[in-house]
Structures are given as C-alpha cells and as structure tokens.
C-alpha cells in the first residue's frame, strides 16, 4: 500500500478553491473537499490509476480528476509514496514550471 503525502502547496491550493466556492455555497465547498480527499485516497491501493495529463504526455506525473478540480501527483515506486503536488481548477491552464518546482520541493 502506498503512503499518500499531501504537500503544503497542494493543500493550500485546495483550500483556496474551497474558500472561493464557500463564498456562495459552503456545503458545496465542504463536499468538494471530501470528494477530492476520497478520490485521492484510492491512490493508496492503486497509485498508477490516475491518468497522464495531456500537457505532460511523457512525464512521471499523473492526475486525479474530481470536477471541478485536477490533483497532480507523482508516485515514487521505490519508496512507496505518492506525493500530491498541485490542485487546480480544471478550466485553468497548467503551469508546468509550478508543478516541477513543487516536485523538487517534495523531494527535499
């Protein structure tokens, strides 16, 4: 079973998305956070189950999509860890540099 590690930036991303939704609908924001954590939780048993982002076809990064969010992660098979690196709204464009920088931070 893989260990899921949420990085601080990814948690902040999800928190910001939930805060925005909560301005209009607090129960929907809570439900979104619950669904994202539940969907990401499947990675403990199936760490390679996420799809490869279209923007990053040949990379080691994968994503879990729980609309309206995309959660990007990296699986380290040697250590059995899954690092959740970035969460963003699905309609936004992925900034690859941000994802790569967070990946380097997670290794430190």
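^ structure tokens above, recovered residues below v
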């Amino acid at each position: 079973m893989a260990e899921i590690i949420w990085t601080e930036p990814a948690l902040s991303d999800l928190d910001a998305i939930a805060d925005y939704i909560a301005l209009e609908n607090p129960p929907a924001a809570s439900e979104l956070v619950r669904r994202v954590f539940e969907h990401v939780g499947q990675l403990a048993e199936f760490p390679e189950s996420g799809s490869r982002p279209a923007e990053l076809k040949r990379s080691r990064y994968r994503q879990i999509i729980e609309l309206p969010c995309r959660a990007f992660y990296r699986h380290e098979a040697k250590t059995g860890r899954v690092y959740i690196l970035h969460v963003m709204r699905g309609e936004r464009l992925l900034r690859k540099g941000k994802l790569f920088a967070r990946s380097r931070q997670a290794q430190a």
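The radius of gyration is 13 Å.
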